[in-house]
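Researcher: Please predict.
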Amino acid sequence: MKRVISTVVALGILFSIAFFLTTVINSLTNEKREMLLEVDNENFDKAIEYANNGDYENAEIYFFKAKNELTGKNRDLEVAMIDMSLGYTYLHIDRYKDSYEYLNRALSKFRSELGAEDVNARTARYHLGHYYKNFGDYENALAIFMDLAKSNDTFQNRLYYSNSAISTLIDMGALSYAKEYYTSQKAIYEERGKTNNRNYMLLLNDEGVMLGNLGEFEAGTIILKKAIEIHAEYSQEEDADLALVYLNLANIASFLGEPEKITEYANKALDIYKKIYGENHLNVAHAYRSVGSNYAALHMADKQNECYSKALEIAKNVAGENHAAVASSYSSLADYYNYVGNYNESIKCAEKAIEIRRNILAGETPAAAADYLSLADQYQAAKRYDEAVVAAETGGNIYIDVFGIKTIHVAKTCLVLARTHILAGNTEDALNFAEGGTAFIEKSIQRDCTIKAFAYQTLGYVFAQTDNLSDAEKYCKMAIDSYVASGGEKQSAVGTTYGYLGSLYTAMGDYDAALIACQKRIEIHKITNGEDVGYVESGYHSLGFTQYQMGRYDDALASYNLSAELRYRQIAKDEQVKGMDLSPQYDGLSATLNNIAAAYEDMGQINEAIVYGRKAYRMLIDHDILPEAESKMIQRLHRLYDAASPNVSFDVWLLQ
């Protein structure tokens, strides 16, 4: 679900802070414009102009020129306005310690001179709320936004505050709470009869994506189409807002497994962007990356690569080699190469993204930290676990450098490190990171959310790997409860956690509980992931293993055959992808065929066991995957050879 969440977050940022520094002068609406303090200074005007053009370096220079000219001249409130502007500028360039200092300084001055309810004080609080939001202190951010939403302010301003509360809830993964806000905001618009406008249309767009995020894909599609109808009522122009709705429709179509719809909606969005901006524009490049992620969800690797490569080409044409959009495109391509099994290339792309960000950004930033975590993912896929640990630790240290103290970002990195250490065999380190990250998240966030649920899931996973099965069960159950409370049961992560429980119960010998957990996993993943090999197929494989342990061989065979069918189908699709490494797929399929052979052997059906056992073995040999000489597969084949008593040697018999 990550892809849907990121779309919503991007929109939330656009919707709630697009006015940027102009709000410092003009406030959030025309109704409040005359109440805001004005700064009568040419350098301040220049600073605002630079800031609105994204030139924050020069903006800072001219803000300080203005401040130096006004300090000590009985113009303290204007100086406070400059401090607030500096604070918000620093927020945009990830200088969080400076941002906090200047925003607090301005807020203190406004409160003491004008009162806490003054529009200038409210504006400073609003910006401070975004500081807390970006910092990862979601509870403080929510407290500010919710309090402002109840203030004696204009209708439009209160909606802005509510939007910021919603985007904060989305950032922390408290999706059910966010849904309640959407419902209440819609009611306000509808009661006032103000539904034929851009703000209401954007609200519907947000709600549609939120419903998709909750697994309510059909309902989300209906709401997004309603947003398109509303857009047609107030505008005859096809604008970027409309293109965004089409991109979100394409996103939901990817979860519904509808490639034709992805193409239809994506082409509409791209046509609009190209009509507005031309072929070469960074917004067009961003749209191609978004569409590429939709195709990735359906394992349509060629389409994925085509979109990501086009995004990179456009970004380079527009901005040259050193630009954030180019770095983002390389990050996307790293994911593509990871999927096709070209890990050397995926690591190169991830490293290229890091190199570009270091060239264009002064000092460490959250974006650089995220790039290192992406690099850690690539190393993990390549089974270079020690290097994955180093990359993840580097990302965590950057977060500490940026924010000055441990934050939610650092705690989430601890969870990544815990999983990486497990893969590297460092169980003690894994447990320390999992417990430390979870403890900080529990302390920092009171309500249920996906961040907290992921922490519990990680701790359960780590305890399982250290054979502490009772604690593993406890935290997996806590994870499911937190996921469901925060966003409902229709989440891929809920299905995955049921998968963990199924494995736990099988290891504990509680096969009835394991059976229920496996079936629940498949049920949820069918909704959230279609027939994805990484989800539903492996779910059937696990279900078959549980049924086999219970002696329910016919049921086990049925589950294993469903798993094999899905794997064959995915292999047929992946064979069309140039350069695709299919060995992991064949390895997984061979394991399933080998399990079918085991079931037939235990049922006494030796001929069927021989057919599937040899097929599993030959599949490995044909794709240069050598089974261990003492593996259970080889041991079983020796037993079947002895039972068949052929007149040829074992090695010859294997390949017949």
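Model: The mean pLDDT is 87.
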